[in-house]
Amino acid sequence: MKHLPIVTGLLSLSLSALSLPALAQPQIASGDRYLEDIDGAECLARADGFVNSLEIETTGGEIDRTGYFNDGVFRILCYDYGTDSMVIVFAAHDESGEVAAEFVRYALDSINY
After folding, report:
1. Helix ranges (DSSP H) in the chain
2. 59-94 pLDDT, tens digit each
3. Residue 60: inside a domain, yes or no?
4. If we measure between CA atoms, which residue out of 86, 87, 54 comes closest to residue 72?
């Protein structure tokens, strides 16, 4: 019976370790930019150039690109408005809202060069 406090302590430590990941929430940032005289196709081409410069794997559809970076994930959307377009970037990071926000700023600046 003298081992009971040790066993109880280890059990509570194990349970708290299991519940800690559930408490962690990703930090999310987003931003957008209106691209004058840049249509949706050119917006996507610029998004592809940006993603290729990062040398990471991505997936994409007709209007979006999705990928992973340094403990985070991002999605770039390009909406066509005739001869103009709108680029929207979402990023989430496991630990830092500032990292997510900085990634969004960097992506928007790179696409709107």
Report:
1. 4-23, 40-54, 97-111
2. 999 999 999 987 899 999 999 998 999 999 999 999
3. yes
4. 54
For CA atoms 77, 107, 89, 91, give the dihedral sign.
Answer: positive
3-state secondary structure of 81: strand
If one counts every other C-beta atom within 10 angstroms of the C-beta of residue 43, the result is 24
Average pLDDT over residues 26-45: 96
The answer to whether 107 and 89 are in contact (CB under 8 A) is: yes
At 20, the amino acid letter reads L
The residue length of the chain stands at 113
Cβ atoms within 10 Å, residue 106 = 15
> Domain with 31 in it: what CATH number?
3.30.310.220
pLDDT digits (tens, 9 = 90+) for 18-29: 445 556 788 999
